[in-house]
Amino acid sequence: MIPNSLDIESLARAYLAGTLTPTAVVAGIHERIARREHDNAWICVVPIREALGRAAELEERRRGGEDLPLFGIPFAVKDNIDVSGMETTAACPAFGYVAGESATAVRLLTKAGAILIGKNNLDQFATGLVGVRSPYGACSSVFDPRYIAGGSSSGSAVAVAAGLSSFALGTDTAGSGRIPAAFNNIVGWKPTRGLISTRGVVPACRSLDCVSVLALTCADAQRVGRILSRSDGADPYSRSAILPGPEFPAAFRFGVPRPSQLEFFGDTETKRLFRMAIDRLADLGGVAVEIDFEPFRDAGGLLYSGPWIAERLQAIETFLSSRPDAVHPVTARVIGEGSRYRATEAFAGLHRLEALRCEARAQWALMDCLALPTAGTTYTVEAVEADPIRLNSNLGYYTSFANLLDLSCVAVPAGFDRRGLPFGITLSGPAFADEALLRLAGRFHRLTGGIVGRTDEFVGSLSEPMPCSLEPLVELAVVGAHLGGQPLNHELTDRGARWLRTLRTAPDYRLFALANTVPPKPGLVRTPGFSGAGIEVEIWGLRPAAFGEFVSGIPPPLAIGTVELMDKSRVRGFVCESFALDGARDISSFGGWRAYLASIAAQTG
């Protein structure tokens, strides 16, 4: 018997303890899928013999000492994402093709030891927030079959919430990864555009598309995200992460729309639950700040009532022209609107968007993050089928603007209404605020409590996350060119290192700008008797083998020694031999290498 909750943390601990194996998990999942054969979550399931073979292979590799950060973790992918040797349909059988290679995201997960269970149903061509626009059947909420599952990543959300996979890949252009997360009581992370490669994904609106992660907890989404956040030279929209992302202050400011701008479409329950969510954010130290939501709302309106709909048409124009009968009538109607836009209107739309971005920046000056209902309400399958365009538009009120305004977002559960249906909020931040948002959303999730997905496990009962690797990480304090975003940081990230935290050294450390180093480097020196404010360092975690490889390449006068931190703990870290200080400038007063570089830039700028 496999556990009801397949959260990554629980499986990783069970594998480590030897109380569970990937082959047992795969077999158990296939039994669950067979019992839920009518939920329409799957378009294709990997044959059990093949999945068991993959599990057995991973177990053998693990016994051989191979490092697999997602060892034995079952996952699923939305069927607009390529998997080598499997058909990609985008929920349109006539469009289907067998992929010659896997999408970048799938390859990274497979390399990390995850096990693919199958491909999930979706709103056709990822166009819709409802989950009913599919010839493979409508997906419904795991809590009430009368209500929609949300879309377009409907099957992916159902698979996670129902305990059929630990996590799933979706896509999110207008809210397609966040809406179904809210309607199924799970986490939906919409990363910064380009942070996860979209190579191998059927485009919906290519300049805005994101691969999203649906998971039971924020910690799980974060763990998967650290595997997937890789620059991809073959994807022109790929962007490198700026690590570490910004941290929110203890008394963080969260923006909330003016009361007149909040829209719940007559649903008093979601209105009540949102007020409760605001109170919980305050309990975490947040300070609510009223902001003008209008530029966000107006930017969202451009996505389907502006020239970006022409980009959706461009993605499938040839197929739609040749096989209009093969496309869902609502999907064809929505995408077909793109044909009426001229090039001049596209430029007018771009100019309008830039103006709205400027207005939104003024609001961001007031807040650290934005807190919104993920959806103002939910609907029955019957209601959506009777009024598909208007109700779908209502669902995107709080989500459609995110990619146009280049935001990062996390949808997180926030309780249940009196009908027994889940409600969620979305925390949004600027580009590359992903890690900070996931940590804050995780704290909110634990404070809110309740079950994860449709399981019998409570979020507060789950163990705090272990490091991504199942072996202990070596903590390394870096102070200069290896800091996140600096020229040599790749020497850490290429070895799988991950940022853990930022803090200061003990007060008796001094920092020097070394002479004649390329790229420029500082030297950290401990001076007994010196009393300063400490030097800012980043702590990165490496697996032991990677740490040894990294240390072997450190050239003199730098070396790896022991660094004492402000909290009296000690870690391995960069230190400098004293002979190199001849001609070096003491920059201790700046408090860290970043502040020193900023001062140099200000002088030369």
How much helicity do the residues have? 25-40%
Question: Structural class per helix/strand content?
Answer: alpha+beta
Instruction: Estimate the strand proportion.
Output: 15-25%
Q: Total domains, how many?
A: 2
Low-confidence stretches: 466-471
Give an account of the 3D structure.
The chain is α+β, with helices and mostly antiparallel strands. It has two domains: 8-461, Amidase signature (AS) enzymes; 474-604, Gamma-glutamyl cyclotransferase-like (Hypothetical upf0131 protein ytfp). Helix content is 33%, strand content 20%. The chain has 18 helices and 23 strands. The strands form five sheets. The chain has an eleven-stranded mixed β-sheet, sandwiched between helices. A five-stranded mixed β-sheet has the order 17-20-16-22-21. Strands 19-18-23 form a three-stranded antiparallel β-sheet, with no helix packed on it. Strand 21 (558-564) and strand 22 (570-576) form a beta hairpin. The radius of gyration is 25 Å and the shape is globular. Mean pLDDT is 93; it is low at 466-471.
In short:
The protein has 605 residues and is of the alpha+beta class.
Task: Give the arrangement of secondary structure elements.
Elements: H1 8-17, H2 22-35, E1 42-45, H3 48-63, E2 74-78, E3 87-88, E4 97-98, H4 104-111, E5 115-120, E6 140-141, E7 144-148, H5 154-161, E8 167-171, H6 179-183, E9 187-190, E10 211-215, H7 218-228, E11 253-257, H8 268-283, E12 287-291, H9 294-305, H10 308-322, H11 329-336, H12 343-364, E13 369-373, H13 381-386, H14 388-395, E14 407-416, E15 422-430, H15 434-448, E16 474-478, H16 490-493, E17 498-504, E18 509-513, E19 522-526, E20 536-542, H17 544-551, E21 558-564, E22 570-576, E23 585-586, H18 593-604
Parallel strand pairs: 2-5, 2-8, 11-12, 11-13, 16-22
Antiparallel strand pairs: 1-5, 3-4, 6-7, 8-10, 9-10, 9-14, 13-15, 14-15, 16-20, 17-20, 18-19, 18-23, 21-22
Helix pairs in contact: 2-3, 7-15, 9-12, 10-11
